[in-house]
Amino acid sequence: xxxxxxxxxxxxxxxxxxxxxxxxxxxxxxxxxxxxxxxxxxxxxxxxxxxxxxxxxxxxxxxxxxxxxxxxxxxxxxxxxxxxxxxxxxxxxxxxxxxxxxxxxxxxxxxxxxxxxxxxxxxxxxxxxxxxxxxxxxxxx
Length: 141
Known about the structure:
By secondary structure, the chain is mainly beta.
């Protein structure tokens, strides 16, 4: 309940910043200190993490890099973002493998989402393999 309330409060502060909703994969070296510290603090737990970077952008970390020996390894594919009315929908596929040595699988992926310039969003919804899921932790500055 606390997570949901935090998400709702943060989403209310969303204000657009450019003419289109766009996203790109990025790295920890290309984000500001506050976002980097937040993501570093949650790296020991697998999950979906959201960070609001002021009014201009938000970051999504999909973390599946922590694997217990004998369990399948998680990786992510097909990340996409779309805006429908006052909602941002973040979609991705989550898959598993027993091939621990495959370094090409994305088990720790960071995306930057640039919001619309003239658009306010009320909601952000996350979908994994077509099913709506909760966000593990939300933060921002």
